Amino acid sequence: MSDNRPIVAVVGRPNVGKSTLFNKLAGKRISIVEDTPGVTRDRIFTEVEWLNRYFTLIDTGGIEPENGDIILSHMRNQAMLAMDMAHIVLFVVDGKSGLTPADREVAQILRKTNKPVILVVNKIDSQSQFDNVYDFYELGLGVPYAISSANSMGLGDLLDEVIQNFPEGLNTEYDEDIIRVAITGKPNAGKSSILNNILGEERVIVSPIAGTTRDAVDTYVEKNGQKFLLIDTAGLRRKSKIYESVEKYSVIRSMAAVDRADVVLIVIDAAEGITEQDTKVAGIAHDEGKACVFVVNKWDLIEKDNKTLGNYTKDIKEKFPFMMYAPVVFVSAKTNQRMSKVLEVAEYVASEHAKRVSTSALNDVIGEAVMLNQPPSDKGKRLKIYYGSQTGVKPPKFTLFINDKKLTHFSYQRYLENKIRENFGFEGTPVQFEYREKNRG
User: Fold this and answer.
1) Which residues of 323-346 are buried (b: 16+ CB within 10 A; e: fewer)?
2) Distance of CA 199 to CAs 83, 115, 194, Å?
């Protein structure tokens, strides 16, 4: 379920530096990097460019020998899935600690994949450590590539080898037509279940353990000819509950996921109702100027009559008065109820987010609005709006040329916004205003 881009999976036992390598190749901090085995739990996807060739890189949870622990066994399954879907596998080992029985076990799994496997010996930080590389020839996976992720040594040669191994017929060019959708909300609201339902496969660990999804996971999907990049984020938690630094990184990355998105799905647990955290996520998305959709999940758990849906919608609008523009979709990822609407609405609000209106049509609306309701005045001086122009998209931005910025008032801006929405729509997206003083005479 990819966009036909080469997929490269980074695998290996825990704590060999997979996430550090992933972050260096991605050019930004995406994976959690911490000296604790098992910190990277879900596959994490990002786009990487080398010599104008693009590919998708997957960071995996470390492969452990068979273990009864629910998370470790999930991590093993995730890594196996990543290897199944990858075109090329980067097998990362630790050049400092040397060859281990776990490395041999992973190598045995990889030999059965019949995929190109590039052996990457990490943590070779100086020439004097180069002799450590020879031990790894024993794995029978070809010539090892000595690198230091932390110091960015050897990465160019490694990337050259990666693109040499791309299978023919795959798309390595950048695609600007993708709608990027972040799936956000508090832990256990069902974000991962929604993603898995859309994809029709178990792409993210779904478990009743709150906070299971720590990493933002990128997944490509195509529906009715439109490509989407779905970003499943770690749930935002209250700050008081963030005891460990790992959780702190997750919160930061959830905010970063919103930053990368065109559309933010704010997933609300229907049974639990709207929480303080839902308000926080919505506030971040609104402030960042993102198109937004409220997705009320677990709707199957609610006892309903003919007023339930209307009352719930009204409650959301009352609790989020600054986001009256955002549509509300009621779904159940578990029973598949209305799930087909999620991407449909996301595509619609993305088009509204990128909509442009002509200057003449905009000024007709502003002129009519001013005639119906005069702008505010102060000490005998009245706000004059000479003309307006749309100066941006994603989100739509309007610049109004006026006589005096001091005379602008939020309530009149809200009035103009409502008039613009009445005439042009802009459903699902915030709109922004900028004022410029234009001296006349």
Assistant:
1) bebbbbbbbbbeeeebbebbbebb
2) 18, 24, 9
| Whether residue 16 is found in the same domain as residue 124 | yes
Residue 76 annotated as lining a ligand binding site:
no
**pLDDT tens across 188-211, in order?**
788 888 988 988 866 555 555 555
Q: Is 373 annotated as a binding residue?
A: no
114 in a domain, yes or no?
Answer: yes
The total number of structural domains in the chain stands at 3
Same domain, 201 and 138: no
123 is in an annotated binding site: yes
Q: Is residue 23 annotated as involved in ligand binding? A: no
60 carries a ligand binding annotation: yes
Residue 361, marked binder:
no
Is 192 annotated as ligand-binding? yes
Where in the sequence is the domain holding 366, given as residue range(s)? 359-437
| pLDDT 10s digits, 381-432 | 999 999 999 999 999 999 999 999 999 999 999 999 999 999 999 999 999 9
Of the candidates 211, 397, 245, 431, the one whose C-alpha atom is nearest the C-alpha of residue 322 is 431
Could you say which of 164, 197, 223 is where a domain stops? 164
Establish whether 125 is an annotated binding residue.
yes
Whether 364 has a binding-site annotation, put simply, is: no
Residue 234 is assigned to a ligand binding site:
yes
